Amino acid sequence: MKYPAFKDLILFENDDYIVVNKPPFIASLDERSAPGKINILRMAKQYADDAQVCHRLDKETSGAIVIAKHPEAYRSLSMQFERRKVNKIYHAVVDGQFQFDNLFVDLPILNDGNKNVTIDRQEGKRAETYFNSLKYYKHYTLVECKPVTGRMHQIRIHLATQRAAICGDAMYRGKPVFLSNIKKGYRLAKDEEEQPIMKRFALHAKQITFKGLDGQDITVEAAYPKDFATLLKLLDKFDA
């Protein structure tokens, strides 16, 4: 995999913060399973010595992620996350047609380590997400997701509880989208194996709003990466 230059990922930068558009398949922080592998934190530290990643995105999730350039900036944003003052907007493509009109999902999530999370009303930690349908296709829906809390896999598992699994999210029974699902008369060559349009789950961190050290709001929007944009383009063309 060819890694982009960190500078090319930057969407916003001031003396305190950098916001980058994280590509899919790059981890936010060091992973135990791949200790020496390139990740957003390592890339950021080569750019600014004291860089700290302020929150994480799942490895497959693309989009806006905030990096603090010094400890004071990191502390300030950590407090904002703790007090639920940071506004995050994600976009997801889900399998099926769903009419979410400010649907509020309030289901506690238990993280039992090794990347396993479950809904657990007794032991789980509070988790809240709002969902709105943005665009309807014949077989899919583009959904806006606004997490209030920041639990692991929160959007993914909350959508799954509504039987609206994110496309390609095998962990929560989401099926990948193939061109043959949406294009009439699509034929593969005899020995060819069809690849999904997106080789990951369709989730993108579209926008983030937080306060800078001067108390002013900083809002940054991250464009869709190529795979997500291609999926929507093909749905527009063949599944509208």
TrEMBL record:
Gene3D superfamilies attached to this UniProt entry: Pseudouridine synthase (3.30.2350.10)
CDD domains: PseudoU_synth_RluA_like
Domain of life: Bacteria
InterPro entries documented for this protein: PsdUridine_synth_cat_dom_sf (IPR020103), PsdUridine_synth_RluA-like_CS (IPR006224), PsdUridine_synth_RsuA/RluA (IPR006145), RluA_PseudoU_synthase (IPR050188)
Keyword annotations: Isomerase
One Pfam family here: PseudoU_synth_2
Key word Isomerase present: yes
Domain Pseudouridine synthase RsuA/RluA-like intervals: 16-160
Similarity comment: Belongs to the pseudouridine synthase RluA family.
Matches recorded under PANTHER family: MITOCHONDRIAL RNA PSEUDOURIDINE SYNTHASE, RIBOSOMAL LARGE SUBUNIT PSEUDOURIDINE SYNTHASE D
Protein name per UniProt: Pseudouridine synthase
Organism: Pedobacter albus
